[in-house]
Amino acid sequence: MKLLFVSPGWPKGRLWGELGFKFPSLSLAALAAVTPSHWQLGLVDENIEAIDFAVDADLVAITAMTPQAPRAYRIAAGFRERGIPVVMGGFHASNLPDEALEHADAVVVGEGELVWPRLLADFEKGSLQPRYRASELLGMQEVPPARRELYAGKKYLFTNTIQTTRGCPFDCEFCSVTAFYGRKYRKRPVEQVLQELEILRKKNSFVFFVDDNLVGDRRYALELFDGMRGKGFKWLSHAPIDLARDPELLRAAGEAGCVGLFVGFESLNEEALVAMGKVTNRAVSYLEDARAFRENGIGILGSFVLGNDGDTPEVFDEILRFCEEARLEAAIFPILTPFPGTAVRARLEAEGRIISNRWEDYDMGHVTFRPLGMTAEELQEGHNRLNRSFYSFSSMYRRIFKAHRSVQVFAPMNFGFRSAVKKTEKALRSQSDQK
Fold this sequence. Notes:
The protein has helices at 15-18, 26-33, 69-80, 91-95, 97-101, 116-125, 177-181, 190-201, 218-228, 247-255, 270-276, 286-295, 315-326, 343-350, 376-390, 393-400, 407-434; strands at residues 2-7, 40-45, 59-63, 86-89, 106-109, 131-133, 161-162, 165-166, 186-187, 206-209, 234-238, 258-266, 299-304, 330-332. It has two domains: 2-133, Cobalamin-binding domain (Rossmann fold); 160-431, tm_1862 like domain (pyruvate-formate lyase- activating enzyme), CATH 3.80.30. The strands form three sheets. The chain has a six-stranded parallel β-sheet, sandwiched between helices. Strands 7-10-11-12-13-14 form a six-stranded parallel β-sheet, with helices on both faces. The protein has a two-stranded antiparallel ribbon with strand order 8-9. It is an alpha/beta fold.
């Protein structure tokens, strides 16, 4: 039996579709790890290669986030027209399984590892069910190492991605992680993680932990960092801003080889932080927090959500000034997006403020709701201007050209984002000219 995994491309003319550095989908390699050995596996990632719809496959499995969903549906149609059944999963299909079932033969809701072998067995017996959902959360000690041989021959920047935990103890209004993984914070045994890291180290010393909150359990994180210390790793991951207020844990991360962390600042407005459920953030200490990261050799990829109810047109210049004063190595500025399954979507729907369900525009770069403190047009223009200003040469020089070990990661990242921003703006101008 032949199984083809498919990762749909991001829409061109959008920031994430224009970024030059590409990473593989770890979730597909995780499913490959629980696929019975008699299945022949293949992978096509449309972000780096074209799809051959005439490929020899008995079953196609597609994963997609919300802005990729329309393309995923078109891909599914292309295979089904040729008589090849399609299974869909991922964040979007999990939150809108009825919609996904209009385009697929079966849908996996939520984490797939527990139900995947049963789905394949049903398929082989000719009794594929329309919907599969595990009755319980996966025990993290049961997670096998991802089958990264699936990436062989692909033009990825690097393939050393790994997940050690799932779930998040917090419940931010705009976040889709809790809806998918739950609030229970689950951890793989540290020894298993260290063994997998040793395998990865044979290929490359750079590692990206895809965990949404790597330090959600302090004792676990300290044990992991202690096991990594002295191994020569250079790694990145995600962590909350209050890590800066734990000197021991922050120092341990730095000594274990951390060179950068994605940190959700989200807003400079304390009331907005409270409203979105960002309980660990204190805007008054942001400058001091950023300094603590830098003193431990850790650069920051900051995130600031635009369009919160307390935001006015002044927010864009305020954020730019803060980012440059804090000397953030990099940043993204997502527009508040009411993804299916999130609390913010439920609230905005109840308030009658969602103005678009065009899923391509749910890329965090387009306004899909009616903001309160400004017009939708002001929010869109401010977002575009903030990206352009932050990734200007003058801003990049002020923020990243300094003696700091994170420069090896963040200098290329800045130039990559700058190029993607320019391509995105060019696409927007072209679309505007055609109207």
